[in-house]
């Protein structure tokens, strides 16, 4: 009954313990972290509520606590706090240890994967989770290219994406192998990496990328006193 809660604790315990480490001092970034989690949390929890209601996925009562809000187990909502917090901690640790550099990529380059993913998502409208995951990921590339292109030029951002895939795979494997979360076969491709649906990789990439973008943007504005 408490497995999902324990997974959430496992996700956040190390980042929380080291938030006050002298070099990283992640606690100084709490305002930017909070804004990122609130803004993107509203968007992704709303997606979760809709997807759960239409049956894209469901939660196994054997592994979650009984409290639910808007159809979601409270521990699922907690995931949208613990996962972004842990990943933003990883980003800040990288930013502390390494110097960022601008990658030699052109703005129009990202319109291709962005537009392609959106079109592919529209093609799979009959598979709701597949469609939504592809469209949202495509929108990330398009919107970032237009409104915050420095993010896509950032070496640290892409390194962050490469690193967070490791804990994502570990914890998502736990969620899908127990399974805490089960997926409707009609909503997905039914292609999996280990026990993880392919769509989850798009879901998590888009979510953690949007979180990073909001966090980095807000942090830069707070640093400038704007």
Give an overview of the whole structure.
- Helices cover about 65% and strands about 5% of the residues.
- It has helices at about 5-15, 30-55, 75-95, 110-125, 130-145, 150, 155-175, 200-225; strands at about 55-60, 70, 70-75, 180-185, 190-195, 195.
- The strands form three sheets. A two-stranded antiparallel ribbon has the order 1-4. Strands 2-3 form a two-stranded antiparallel sheet.
- The radius of gyration is 18 Å and the shape is globular.
Distance between the termini: 45 Å
Shape: globular
Encode the helix/strand succession as letters. HHEEEHHHHHEEEH
Specify the number of helices. 8
Q: Could you tell me the strand content as a percent range? A: 5-15%
* SSE class: mainly alpha
The average pLDDT score comes to 95
Radius of gyration computed on alpha carbons: 18 Å
Approximate helicity band: 55-70%
Number of strands: 6
Unreliable spans: none
Please state how the strands of the largest beta sheet are arranged side by side: 1-4
- How would a textbook summarize the main sheet? 2 strands, antiparallel
